[in-house]
Amino acid sequence: MSVRTDEEISGGVPYRRGGTARTGRVGRLLRGPRPEAVPLLVGRACALVGVLDIAAGVFPRFRHSRMHAVAEVLPGALGPFAAALSLSTGALLLLLAHGLKRGKRRAWRAAVALLPAGAVAQFTYRHSVAGVLISLALLAPLLRHRDQFDALPDPRSRWRALANFLLMSAGSLLLGLIVVSVHGDRMLGDPSLADRITHVVYGLFGFEGPVDYQGSTSWTVAFSLGALGLLTAVTTIYLAFRPEHPAAQLTEQDEARLRALLDRHGGRDSLGHFALRRDKAVVFSPSGKAAVTYRVVSGVMLASGDPIGDVEAWPGAIERFMDEARAHSWTPAVMGCSETGGEVWTRETGLDALELGDEAVVDVKDFSLAGRAMRNVRQMVKRIERAGYETRVRRVRDLGEAELERIRRAADDWRGTDTERGFSMALGRIGDPADGDCLIATAHKQDDHPGPHGDLKAVLHFVPWGTDGASLDLMRRDRCADPGMNELLIVAALQAAPRFGIARVSLNFAMFRSALARGEKIGAGPVLRAWRGLLVFLSRWFQIESLYRFNAKFQPRWEPRFVVYRASADLPRIGFAAMQAEGFVNLALPLPRFLRRRRTTPRRPCAHGTATERTVRAA
User: Fold this and answer.
1) For every residue of 73-88, which 3-state class applies, written as one string?
2) Which DSSP helix (H) or strand (E) runs through 256?
């Protein structure tokens, strides 16, 4: 056995009482920040330098400094050019700051080229040594830690060019208005706000506007506005013509491999079949026995449910998932995993888990409409059946193409929003030939004046959960149908389940269900009651309490679901990305009305004016 002395352990430096802590602090300062923290620090610093560059290009008072005498020997035309250079460099650095924080290689290259240009502009226009030193000082960590800026580009599309044009146009208009207004002491006359805005718009396109200035100020303003307009045009053209990297989609080969894994291990997780959404990407374990599906939304690599496949192979798939997140500098997150999945994710990655809500699961053999607890559901179902409604529960493979097309059109027309909602607990399609095992429950009623979809009044779609289960995908109903269609079809599906060999049915996911349930019980503390009150308040806009109440009607057992995240500071970003993925937040710019695809059938006004019951399966 070898024994090392304290001197050898400390790297050859003898131990001295009272000096270790001080020496350690000095050493850390000399070493600088940890390499993995450099992108975040440099990104924030570049945003600060960008603001300084913009201020130097906008405000004329920054030109007066002790170096003014030295600057007078520079060519006179350099002042307006330097102002435009400082303004455009600052705007570009602000645009690059987010990419630098995420360690993007292209952002690093652009920043290395722009920082010296900003330093030149600071010297020639503002004459500030401090501004020059700040710009140049950032080059040292950028060059020293260039290996930390190796993240690959994100998936992108042509819509980024249009978004950039609108945002840059608005920002250029605002900055241009400031540039025009801060030279008030050199302005001839007293132009109105409309004249100043007109001057800005003309200047962005390189033309003279209605505002005049004394001396060379007109050139300074003109070059600054022209630089903003040119910057808007160049960035938009670059985004429009750069190679398009569309979001990854599930290939036929990947889908076949996932279906093979689901055939063997699909009964473990009720959300497993939703991994077959074709707008998701997938990573497989080295052995191919497990996989994780995901979608990238706003820089968040969002997985849903548990990994697919053999539990023993989950760590390999999770490791591939984390490697992909690191390669692109994406924020890893998992929505709606089970308790077992959360334990594996946190153990293998060091991430944290937070309970998100509960999934309602009904055991078919225990379900019955008898008893006081089911009185409301029983009465509602009997009332609707007496009104002449009938139900049909069938496999997708047993429906003809004509009827499937009618169901698809009805589901699209009855959708309450312009965009399809759902990601973690929605398949996104009905009647695909590959989904023949899915269940469809429909409600029908013969009317004297049938609607565009005939006697069809409501649709429920279930996806397979292994060989003996079903998981609710979507619920749609005619707005003019009687209330209670959803309850009617869920009861019909549960009663017909034994005929299809189904022993368990997963219903909707209820967010924060335990907080709502415990907060209304006697003895709940003030914090829990306040949290429940906030959830009830938010239920005015999001289906939180109503979804919990609806699920509780069927006396299910509750299975907790979790969100897995890297740091608490990432939770707002993950929540926003999840809302985008689920369709609750849509940042895409809508097409003009005349370019939108017309609906197959117009929506009919309801004669009796009953409110629509909408239950959306979403996290």
Assistant:
1) CCCCCHHHHHHHHHHH
2) helix 252-265
